[in-house]
Design a protein that fits this description.
Elements lengths: L1 H30 L2 E9 L2 E13 L2 E11 L2 E13 L2 E6 L4 E7 L2 E8 L2 E9 L2
Antiparallel strand pairs: 1-2, 1-8, 2-3, 3-4, 4-5, 5-6, 6-7, 7-8
């Protein structure tokens, strides 16, 4: 009987903690709304990056990403999926580009990937 009560108590605690984590991610996601400008790089090459977050629903974001100076030229593509989990934004654009960013005040830092290519990515909130 005691084991069953303990398991029930443990399950309630775990559910409460998971809902708190989701609430924190939703709060962080709301802070991404707006326009961010920065740079992507790979080795000695790189270019400008712009992230525009137009809408936030819970931990999910909607918007678009623009990449300048890539091997295929300048590109602009909507966010296919973009979700904040454990404080980190993971996004995939409709053109196949992916990136992961963490927020530090009005700065974003992380990485990008397209196929087998990847590198650092950073951006600042536009004022």
């Amino acid at each position: 009987m005691k084991t069953s009560a303990f398991r029930s108590f443990l399950m309630v605690c775990l559910l409460a903690l998971s809902s708190l984590a989701f609430a924190d991610d939703a709060e962080i996601a709301g802070k991404f709304k707006g326009e961010w400008t920065g740079e992507w790089s790979i080795g000695n090459f790189g270019g400008k990056f712009v992230l525009v977050v137009k809408e936030v629903q819970g931990a999910n974001l909607k918007g678009e990403g623009q990449w300048f100076g890539t091997a295929t030229g300048d590109t602009k593509s909507p966010l296919k999926t973009a979700v904040v989990k454990d404080g980190e934004l993971s996004a995939e654009q409709e053109d196949g580009s992916t990136f992961k960013l963490k927020m530090d005040g009005d700065k974003l830092k992380g990485t990008w990937q397209v196929g087998t290519y990847n590198g650092p990515l950073m951006a600042n909130r536009n004022k």
